[in-house]
Amino acid sequence: MPSSASRKGYKGEVEVVELLRDLGFTAERSWGSDGRSFGEKSDIDVKATKGDLTIRVQVKRRKKLADFLSFKNADVVMVRQDRKPWLWIVKHEWMKDLFNSGALETHKPENGVSNDRDSHGSAKLKGESNAISNEKTKS
């Protein structure tokens, strides 16, 4: 019988899949919370795609988060560990508004092949030529 922590993690992953599907993504949960079940690294719990944008998600569900991560009046909380990249934490409603506003566009490749060599794993803000990459960047 799974532990209560395992059940809580599973429920969180299922919730995230549904949230992403509500945003128009095709989303799936990895079998056994192991991303290797769909060809990713083991720490990936959920994989979602929309056009050529792929989001790989590690789900963490906690009873309480550190107080410094609370939003208060901000739309985004950004944190960085020394010598590590910046992390963005956004509310689901803010992200939902971003996708629904049309400010962010995903590109659907024709016949499964993208003509934009920089578009793999990226999305662009409308009117912008630079891609917002979901790849890790160094700080």
Count of separate DSSP helical elements: 2
Oligomer classification: single chain
Class per helix and strand makeup: alpha+beta
The overall pLDDT, averaged over residues, is 77
Sequence of secondary-structure elements: HEEEEEHEEE
First-residue to last-residue Cα separation? 43 Å
Unreliable residue stretches: 111-122, 129-139
The description of the largest β-sheet is: 3 strands, antiparallel
Radius of gyration: 16 Å
What is the helix fraction of residues, given as a range? Answer: 10-25%
What is the number of strand segments?
8
Please give the domain count. 1
Which shape, going by the Cα principal axes?
globular
Widest β-sheet, arrangement of strands:
1-2-3
Strand content: 15-25%
Architecture overview:
It is built from two helices and eight strands, in the order αβββββαβββ. It is of the alpha+beta class. It has one domain. A hairpin with a 7-residue loop joins β4 and β5 (87-90).
